[in-house]
Structures are given as structure tokens and as C-alpha cells.
Design brief:
7 strands, Aminopeptidase, 266 residues
Length: 266
């Protein structure tokens, strides 16, 4: 996999769906040319991928999309976030730079070296980050043009136990954390999500992770773009870290389907 255009997939939904399921962190693939710049040996890299990957979230999104009344669109990253993290700011605005996790990570989840500290992020940002950002921007623009609105639902997972890289991990770790943005997450969307996931052991808001992804062209300026981050605690559906799924995956897929359907009906 050497072409940046192959590093992600836009999977079409129905023309009248405003929903875009975004799955940025589900993959483990690292191109050989990128692997060469990572300091970890193979065993340590596999362990890091177990911790950093939002395992099975692409499968979760696929199950929900397949069951939805109106099929949502999906943008799925096919590369590991250790290549680039498409949800980071690509500049000094990114607070995760303080732990070596900007758009191009130089530190691991344990805050140990992943790449040399003086790594130039530019080549990876140019090759992978910018094409991904353009694709996401175009996908959202297309939903606006076709339906008059766009609803980005970010599908993530997070570990049951706080990892050292987490800047705000001291708060509650509910089965489902709903990340919000003050401009792009209307109360109605949050309420629909709380209702959809209510039967899964409880939801929380903005703890341990907060915010919601919106392409920078629309961020803070286009109210017709709404967004919500769905962070699922991994013990609810899989063996940690990096293990197989359990019966919880089907329950989560049904809940995500319910959210997609509710949003589509609004």
C-alpha cells in the first residue's frame, strides 16, 4: 500500500443520508517506508498497536451502516494512526504535541520514543494527512450539497485503564463517552446519542476524551455541520488489549444503528 489515495476509503451511503460515520483509528497497517522510521522492534510495535488502535471500530461502523434504515456514508482510515493521525491539528494548535502525539507521533502511549525527536513531520503530513483531510472535507461538502446538512459521527474506542499519554484521563471512564464541540454538537444530537446508547451501562460526556471532529474548512464557521464523537470503552466489546470481539459488539452496533436512524429522521 504505497499510494496515499489507497490509505483511506469513502464508502457510499444513500444520496439522501446526511450522516457520515468517520472511523480514523481502526487500522494497524503501516507501509514499509514508514515502518523504517519507527524505533520500536517488531514485538514492541505490535504491543503499541494493541494499545493505540481502536480495534474493530470499522467492523462496528459497517454493521451499523448495513442495518440502518437510510445507509450512512463512511470514511475509514486504512492505515494506522502511527502513520499520521488524521484527527490532530497539523500545527501548534494541537495540545497533544506536549506528549509527542501531534499529527505525526514521536512518542508511544507509554511516552517512550516512537520516532526520533527531531523527525520532520512534513513528508508524512503531505503524503497522508492532507489527502485524507481533503477527502473528509469533500465528503462533508457533498452531504451539505445533497441534503442541506452533514452529521459527522466519529467512531472510536478507548482502554478501560488510563494510559500514560492521556492528558485528561483522571475523570470518569463510562461504557460510552460522548465527545462534544461547543459549536458543532447541538443539544438535540447529544440527546439522541444518550437515548441510543442508554441500555449499554451508561453514557458520559467529554470524559475521558472530549471534542468532535469537523474538517477545518467548516470548523467553527458552518452550523449546518454537526458532529459527535462516540468513544466506546473496550471492555464492553472486546478482550484488551488488541484481542477478539465478544457479544457486546452486536449490542453496540444496534445502538449505533439507532443513533444513525434517529439522526436521519430529524
Amino acid at each position: 500500500m504505497n499510494n496515499a489515495t489507497e490509505s483511506f476509503a469513502l464508502l457510499p451511503g444513500t444520496a439522501d443520508s446526511p450522516v457520515l460515520l468517520h472511523v480514523p483509528h481502526s487500522a494497524r497497517e503501516i507501509p514499509a517506508s514508514v515502518r523504517d522510521g519507527i524505533l520500536l522492534d517488531d514485538a514492541a510495535l505490535e504491543e503499541e498497536l494493541d494499545h493505540i488502535t481502536d480495534a474493530h471500530t470499522a467492523e462496528l461502523a459497517a454493521l451499523a451502516a448495513g442495518a440502518a434504515e437510510v445507509t450512512p456514508w463512511r470514511l475509514v482510515n486504512r492505515l494506522s494512526r502511527l502513520v499520521v493521525d488524521p484527527e490532530r491539528f497539523p500545527d501548534e494548535r494541537e495540545e497533544m504535541l506536549s506528549v509527542g502525539m501531534g499529527a505525526v507521533y514521536t512518542r508511544t502511549t507509554q511516552r517512550t520514543p516512537l520516532r526520533p525527536a527531531d523527525t520532520d513531520p512534513g513528508p508524512l503530513v503531505d503524503r497522508y494527512f492532507h489527502p485524507y483531510a481533503r477527502a473528509m472535507t469533500e465528503a462533508v461538502a457533498d452531504r451539505l450539497a445533497m441534503t442541506g446538512r452533514a452529521v459527522v459521527i466519529d467512531v472510536h474506542s478507548y482502554p478501560t485503564t488510563r494510559l500514560p499519554y492521556e492528558l485528561h484521563g483522571e475523570g470518569p471512564r463510562p461504557p460510552v463517552c460522548l465527545g462534544t464541540d461547543g459549536f458543532h454538537t447541538p443539544p438535540e444530537l447529544l440527546a439522541l446519542a444518550r437515548e441510543a446508547f442508554a441500555g449499554l451501562g451508561g453514557t458520559g460526556v467529554d470524559s475521558p476524551f472530549s471534542g468532535a471532529y469537523v474538517p477545518l474548512d467548516f470548523y467553527g464557521r458552518e452550523p449546518r455541520v454537526s458532529a459527535l464523537m462516540v468513544e466506546i470503552r473496550r471492555d464492553t466489546y472486546m478482550a484488551e488489549p488488541g484481542g477478539l470481539t465478544g457479544p457486546g459488539l452486536a449490542h453496540l452496533a444496534a445502538a449505533l444503528t439507532a443513533l444513525v436512524d434517529a439522526v436521519s429522521r430529524c
